[in-house]
Automatic annotation (TrEMBL):
It holds the Pfam family Glyco_hydro_14. One of its GO terms (biological process) is polysaccharide catabolic process. It comes from Vigna angularis var. angularis. This is Beta-amylase. Its EC number is 3.2.1.2. Signal peptide: none annotated.
């Protein structure tokens, strides 16, 4: 389905919706070979005539080829900030070998291309790719997704997700850690994070055992590195051309942090949570004990702080977090928080170092994500940040050291909540300040000259939310020295293609790019003709495909 206006750049596809086994990708002009199916080709902003039509045709069988030509001409290059769209979590089957609802996916990608979106964010789950056995990787579903994006003229940002997604098996989008890793955790539960109540968290392997051979002879850092290396080798010909960015997961939710909060999806109940220090597995305790003995204070190495209260308690009613006289600001508190945050920083540096070595020379932009934990930002102790591993208080900057580490290894920084407004959130929680938190993070990124990737927290933005994103993006990118900024919209679903939401979204993409793109028109099917069925000539087509497929 082509959905360009007649005055727009030409996009002339011919494709099949049947699935094919992806076997080889090469550089632009790229020729992608499939074991089964038809030759498919597209031309985006090329010199071909706009009259070339597209159609569906029967399967010829045998091995055929797919050709794609890109011309990154001045018309394609644009000023402003590019927008990427994160694909659904369940884009690939739980078996990992195929794209779910491929026809709907292809239509959606074409719609995004016509809206002027720069590319898509594809989450690549460790629990699906290396699911059953160590060093046995199944990239087929990911390869198919990348090929579909390539066909539509979209770039790809890959997110290498080493964490669990969802709260548990009852979650329809639940993706656990690899089964063989879960088997190792059953044998040694100390591989999982633990809080003071003995509650285990298996969203992400405890960083306390980062360099210990606890995963069938390999350390977690080695396992992550082997995964990155196999990804690089599998997609080598596309790195820096189609796959322009790789975000490396460093903790729960893909963020560099501890799993200090409830393991369910984030929601508005979070502003009530202080979080729990995750330092009670034997590997973290061994490190804490060694650090305490090194300064001659062995009694400080037996566990986390006392007096931290309950998860939902007012921090002013706790001995550790209260503003005046809280033990967070005592010599013991400073020792513990420096150790706890230092372990997190060391974990991030280990992964950054491996990633920089592995992807050196590939021309992909590497990035990592930080959590925007804003709900106690106006207090002195910032308790929810402390439990997550960010030693950030009213008199100490906890993010500059992380930004410096990213800068050292050539990483960009990704952070969320760009649509949140203090005026709205403080009605729910007067101790929070998403704008204040984000400004501090952005200033740290500017000081370290980092490229920045913004992201939204809510998946259903109104006009006010999009306006706030524009405001915060200009806060970062405007100035004498313009820093690179891009935005990841989270995420593509049926609501995006509802008429009102689609209008808002396409307007936002134009504004982010300073209006220098062609306008999306979902009310025309352009040149493409389908022999199999009539096409619904409006945005509701995609909405209904999501609804009923």
């Amino acid at each position: 389905m082509a959905i360009l206006s007649q005055s727009a750049a030409t996009f002339s596809p011919s494709f099949v919706s049947t699935r094919s086994d992806f076997t080889r990708l090469t550089r632009f002009p790229c020729r992608v070979t499939f074991r089964r199916g038809l030759a498919v080709s597209s031309c985006f902003n090329s010199s071909k005539s706009p009259g070339a039509g597209g159609f569906l045709s029967p399967d010829n069988g045998g091995e055929v080829s797919y050709e794609l030509h890109h011309d990154f001409s001045p018309q394609r290059r644009r000023s402003g900030s590019p927008v990427f769209v994160t694909l659904p979590v369940n884009s690939v089957s739980r078996e990992g070998g195929r794209v779910l609802r491929p026809k709907t996916m292809m239509f959606s990608l074409k719609a995004l291309a016509t809206a002027g979106v720069e590319g898509v964010v594809v989450e690549i789950w460790w629990g699906l790719v290396e699911k059953n056995k160590p060093r046995v990787y199944d990239w087929r579903g990911c390869e198919e997704l990348v090929a579909m994006a390539c066909k539509c003229g979209l770039k790809v940002r890959a997110v290498l997700a080493f964490h669990q997604h969802g709260a548990g098996p009852d979650d329809p989008n639940w993706i656990p850690l690899p089964l063989w890793v879960l088997d190792e955790i059953k044998k040694d539960v100390e591989l999982a994070y633990c809080d003071r109540f003995g509650r285990r968290n298996i969203e992400y392997i405890s960083l306390g055992c980062d360099i210990l051979p606890v995963l069938r002879g390999r350390s977690p850092i080695q396992v992550y590195a082997d995964f990155m290396r196999d990804f690089r080798d599998t997609f080598r010909s596309l790195l820096g051309v189609i796959i322009t960015g790789v975000q490396i997961g460093m903790g729960p939710g893909g963020e560099l942090r501890y799993p200090s909060f409830s393991p369910q999806e984030p929601n508005l109940a979070w502003p009530q949570e202080l979080g729990e220090f995750q330092c009670y597995d034997k590997y973290m305790l061994a490190s804490l004990n060694a650090s305490a003995r090194n300064i001659g204070m062995r009694e400080w190495g037996n566990g986390g702080p006392f007096g931290t209260g309950s998860l939902m308690q007012n921090p002013e009613h706790t001995d550790f977090f209260k503003n005046d006289g809280g033990s967070w600001d005592t010599p013991y508190g400073k020792f513990f928080l420096e150790w706890y945050s230092g372990m997190l920083l060391l974990h991030g540096e280990r992964i950054c170092k491996e990633a920089e070595t592995i992807f050196r020379g590939t021309e992909v932009h590497m990035s990592a994500k930080l959590a925007v934990i804003h709900w106690h930002y106006v207090t002195q102790s910032h308790p929810s940040e402390l439990t997550a591993g960010y030693y950030n208080t009213f008199n100490r900057d906890g993010y500059l050291s992380i930004a410096r580490m990213f800068s050292k290894y050539g990483f960009s920084m990704c952070c969320s909540c760009f649509e949140m407004q203090d005026a709205v959130m403080q009605k729910i929680n007067p101790d929070g300040s998403p704008e204040g938190f984000l400004r501090q993070l952005l200033l740290a990124a500017r000081l370290c000259d980092l490229a920045l990737e913004g992201q939204n927290f809510s998946t259903n933005l109104d006009d006010g939310g999009f306006t706030q994103v524009l405001k915060m993006s200009k806060f970062y990118s405007n100035g004498i020295e313009k820093r690179p900024f891009s935005f990841n919209f989270v995420r593509m679903d049926k609501r995006l293609f509802e008429s009102r939401n689609w209008d808002r979204f396409t307007r936002f993409v134009r504004q982010m790019s300073n209006g220098n793109i062609f306008r999306a028109r979902l009310y025309s099917v352009g040149d493409t003709r389908f022999k199999t069925a009539p096409v619904m000539p409006e945005a509701r087509l995609l909405y209904h495909l999501y609804q009923y497929s």
